[in-house]
TrEMBL record:
It holds the Pfam family TatC. It is a multi-pass membrane protein. The chain crosses the membrane at residues 21-47, 93-112, 133-152, 185-203, 215-234, 240-261. It is found in: Cell inner membrane; Membrane. PANTHER family: SEC-INDEPENDENT PROTEIN TRANSLOCASE PROTEIN TATC (PTHR30371), SEC-INDEPENDENT PROTEIN TRANSLOCASE PROTEIN TATC, CHLOROPLASTIC-RELATED (PTHR30371:SF0). The lineage of its organism: Bacteria, Pseudomonadati, Bacteroidota, Flavobacteriia, Flavobacteriales. This is Sec-independent protein translocase protein TatC. Part of the twin-arginine translocation (Tat) system that transports large folded proteins containing a characteristic twin-arginine motif in their signal peptide across membranes. Forms a complex with TatA. HAMAP family: TatC. Belongs to the TatC family.
Length: 269
């Protein structure tokens, strides 16, 4: 560790943290401004799962035809409309969508600022992992974002937008409600896909071991099903589709934990 960092006072650390946070916020706002200007492009992407010809719907429709059963994903248009019911509804949605776009797209830089703050407290060989850590964590996050956008969001929009308790009740979805479904699906999946990174650091800290993860694999399956039930519509097929990649991440995390533990044991020897 660097001696200069050891001599920093608590207030010095707070000052350093403040500037890291400021730079991260500036990056988010800068990307948010770009997203705000590119309104048409952003909202075409966000609104895409509403359209019957969205990629995921076409894919599930073809799968349904392949197995010879009628699929609800084959509709040309989903049976609901999106509306704004407040005076500032569209403007507010525009601003907040731009900010969240900034959070998602600036994630690698935010992660870099976080790493820059904690890295002085690490040893030299641990700091060398910075580039790999930021790259892998960002890659996993964006894979999760794409997974949420192209799978979780369409499943949720199709189920909730098509659900009806009576033919007398028409689905007229509020703009902010629709965007909330898209946002929560995308960001929650991005965070969930960081599981291997979390396991890596917990193993290095000695909190968990591969033996522990194998022992509680059945419990993990239950937790995964609960998570899938939270972020997907309440139907079994959607939950199974979402659970499979999360369980794959769990199994990959076991190998990562075993690799880290082996390296730590070799250091001791």
């Amino acid at each position: 560790m660097e001696s200069s960092q050891d001599e920093m006072s608590f207030l010095d650390h707070l000052e350093a943290l403040r500037w890291h946070l400021i730079r991260a916020i500036i990056a988010v706002l800068a990307v948010g401004v770009v997203a705000f200007v590119c309104k048409d492009f952003i909202f075409q992407i966000i609104f895409a799962p509403k359209n019957g010809d969205f990629f995921t719907y076409r894919m599930f429709c073809k799968i349904g035809h392949l197995f010879g059963f009628k699929s609800t994903f084959c509709a040309e248009q989903l049976p609901f409309t999106i509306q704004s019911r407040t005076m500032a509804g569209q403007f507010s949605a525009h601003i907040w969508t731009s900010i969240w776009a900034g959070v998602i797209l600036a994630f690698p830089y935010v992660l870099y600022e976080v790493w820059k703050f904690i890295s002085p407290a690490l040893y030299e060989n641990e700091r060398k992992l910075a580039r790999g850590f930021i790259l892998i964590a960002s890659l996993l996050f964006f894979i999760g974002v794409l997974f949420g956008y192209y799978l979780i969001t369409p499943l949720s929009v199709n189920f909730l937008g098509s659900y009806s308790v009576s033919p007398e009740v028409r689905n007229q979805i509020d703009l902010n409600s629709y965007i909330s479904v898209v946002r929560s699906s995308v960001i929650s999946c991005g965070i969930i896909f960081e599981l291997p990174i979390v396991v890596y650091f917990l193993t290095k800290l000695g909190v968990i071991t591969p033996a522990f993860m194998r022992k509680y694999r059945r419990h993990a399956v239950i937790v995964v099903l609960i998570i899938a039930a939270i972020i997907t519509p309440p139907d079994v097929v959607s939950q199974i589709i979402v659970s499979i990649p999360i369980m794959l991440l769990y199994e990959i995390s076991i190998f990562i934990s075993a690799y880290v533990l082996k390296k730590e044991q070799n250091k001791v020897i």
